Amino acid sequence: KAGVTQTPRYLIKTRGQQVTLSCSPISGHRSVSWYQQTPGQGLQFLFEYFSETQRNKGNFPGRFSGRQFSNSRSEMNVSTLELGDSALYLCASSLGQGARTGELFFGEGSRLTVL
Amino acid sequence: GESVGLHLPTLSVQEGDNSIINCAYSNSASDYFIWYKQESGKGPQFIIDIRSNMDKRQGQRVTVLLNKTVKHLSLQIAATQPGDSAVYFCAENPYTDKLIFGTGTRLQVFP
Description:
Chain A is mostly beta strands. Chain A has strands at about 5, 10-15, 20-25, 30-40, 40-50, 55, 65-70, 75-80, 85-95, 105, 110-115.
């Protein structure tokens, strides 16, 4: 079956703009988590959605938001982009809620560059 | 491919040798640990996990060791192959339903 699909794979934005990233989880997976990966900070948890509800949130400013649709697909949005938002944004899906319930399957990520 | 870290510690091993990748975790309340492998241009891939009621767990060519006393985790890869070249991350889960990732170690396998 198809893995986690993230779109777009690459994008370039300028400071002050906003961006929306999309994630389609593995069929049947109901949990979607988002992570930010940078060389300086490594992999950091953004938020998790399960059954269209945000279940957990990391330590990121309110400019970072997300949502999940009834088909489990998820989007994350970053408003008023800053240079430091340049990163690889990774989406992961799992069958159940939370990292403890089983294996997280990651997508290949969306590479955001902010100029 | 993607660069996941410009200043990662690097482990270089010869093909066929065993590799040991170490990780120190931070939270004494963590009771679930996972090792991930990330190849260039790809997302992290689950390798093996271990719960705190165990000291050792074996998979195919991989073994994870957990020392809760010193908060240390290690991943052993037997008979390392060129396809094992990647960045390896440990992750801990301290009851919060989110994973805390380590900084990663780059494994380079040379013939």
